[in-house]
Amino acid sequence: MNNGGSRYTIPVNPSPIGSSLRLPAELMESSSFLLKRLGMLAKERTLDAYEEAGFSPYHYATLVVLDEGTRETQGEIADVLGYDKGQLVGILDELEERGLVERRRDPNDRRRHLVSMTTGGRRALARLRTLAGRIDDEFLAPLSDEDRETLHTLLLRLAEVHEPRCAPPFPS
């Protein structure tokens, strides 16, 4: 929201199930409004679940990128996730302190750091994948398996257009 040039966020307080409070029809007819509202609720629930497990979604995403095995420099990891490089350094500091990743200087370019996941990092990633699945299952519980697949297909189609990192790879 813009308030005289400054931006601020208003937290969403979900109304109790069965509440008589209802959003105006005009807002309920807006797909982008519903995406935004559900996105805020999903983010809040996700942050809470990861925090309860002693992690953050940023830890999970970083470990997933490392597990993919195609990116190993701090710069590549930050770029693919869309994180500020300074923000990623803090995330890697936290993961390294817990023994989940290791960083070392690139022998071919001393300015770069190579990052790799440890055995402990792989174990943590397995737990975080289970957590991510549980979060999805809980949030999407009202939908059938077929509806979930359709929703994912539609969201992916939108993401491929609006988020370059989600676009399919160029043919080789």
Nutshell version of this structure?
It contains seven helices and four strands. With 172 residues, the protein is mainly α.
Helix content: 55-70%
For the sheet with most strands, the description reads: 2 strands, antiparallel
For the record, the CATH class of one domain is Mainly Alpha
Question: Structural class given helices, strands, pairing?
Answer: mainly alpha
Q: Main sheet: which strands, in order across?
A: 1-2
Give the topology string: H per helix, E per strand.
EEHHHHHEEHH
Extract low-pLDDT stretches.
none
Question: Could you characterize what this model shows?
Answer:
- Helix 4 packs across helix 5 (85-97).
- This protein has a domain at 57-139: Arc Repressor Mutant, subunit A (Orthogonal Bundle).
- A hairpin with a 2-residue loop joins strand 3 (101-106) and strand 4.
- Helices cover 57% and strands 11% of the residues.
- The strands form two sheets. The chain has a two-stranded antiparallel sheet. A two-stranded antiparallel sheet has the order 3-4.
- It is mainly alpha-helical.
Keywords:
172 residues, mainly alpha, Arc Repressor Mutant, subunit A, two-stranded antiparallel sheet, 7 helices, 4 strands, 11% strand
Secondary-structure topology with pairs:
Layout lengths: L1 E2 L2 E2 L17 H4 L2 H22 L4 H12 L5 H8 L3 H13 L3 E6 L2 E9 L1 H21 L5 H18 L10
Antiparallel strand pairs: 1-2, 3-4
Helix pairs in contact: 2-6, 3-6, 4-5
